[in-house]
Design goal:
globular; binds D-ribose; 5 strands; single chain; about 150 residues; Ribose 5-phosphate Isomerase B, Chain: A; 5-stranded parallel β-sheet; alpha/beta
């Protein structure tokens, strides 16, 4: 199961991405928004960030106009590694090097076919581990230290 959410700037692309996921037999839970009414991206980003951080689901997708706001929100959550990707290379690296558990897309940046390709690359790529795991461990340690205040 995968969770997905967007603001109004990403709602149209979210529908396209959901279709691609359905085509791959992937069930996704849509946390909104639905339609074009202007909403605040943190209100929707928080739903995916929370679900992934609490390990209710392993992976999520967030979409806003640029993807920038959603990245900022999602990366506030412990254990969330949200990556904003724009092309095939960054989509592959997001998983291979960063083990990104939230993929972030720009609804006003990407055409639907490219966005679906990027989602597929992210889903199909394996985390390389090794030296990259050591780096993720450092991020996890940092999160722990910062949460102690
Ligand atoms: C909404 O107009 C826009 O600011 C939002 O979708 C996003 O791009 C923020 O980063």
């Amino acid at each position: 199961m995968l969770v997905i959410a967007s603001d109004h700037g990403g709602a149209e692309l979210k529908e396209a991405v959901k279709k691609c996921l359905e085509g791959r037999g992937i069930v996704c839970r849509d946390f909104g928004t639905f339609g074009d009414d202007s909403v605040d991206y943190p209100d929707f980003g928080v739903r995916v960030g929370m679900a992934v951080s609490r390990k209710e689901t392993a992976q999520g997708i967030l979409i806003c106009g640029t993807g920038i706001g959603m990245s900022i929100v999602a990366n506030k959550f412990p254990g969330v590694r949200a990556a904003l990707v724009h092309d095939e290379f960054t989509a592959r690296m997001a998983k291979e090097h960063n083990d990104a558990n939230v993929l972030v897309l720009g609804g006003r940046v990407l055409a639907a076919d490219l966005a679906c390709r990027l989602v597929s690359i992210w889903l199909d790529t394996d985390f390389a581990g090794g030296r990259h795991q050591k780096r993720l461990d450092k991020i996890a340690l940092l999160e722990k230290k910062l949460s102690r205040g």
